[in-house]
């Protein structure tokens, strides 16, 4: 029998909606800065670098968690 936590977490990111990702708020903040902020800052991407770095770190942690989940799964279960 499958637990509620396992049912809520899709086995693969591709089967989930991107908007449900833990990194979606960081993603939207980086895009907002990139598109609206760059008009304000000219083409100076360094003004948005903090947003880019936060999103990149979130995606890295999300990927590591997914790899750990997949490592614990058996192909024959």
From TrEMBL:
UniProt superkingdom: Eukaryota
PROSITE patterns: CHCH
PANTHER family hit by this protein: COX19 FAMILY PROTEIN (CHCH MOTIF), CYTOCHROME C OXIDASE-ASSEMBLY FACTOR COX23, MITOCHONDRIAL
Name of this protein: Cytochrome c oxidase-assembly factor COX23, mitochondrial
Record organism: Dovyalis caffra
Native organism taxonomy: Eukaryota, Viridiplantae, Streptophyta, Embryophyta, Tracheophyta
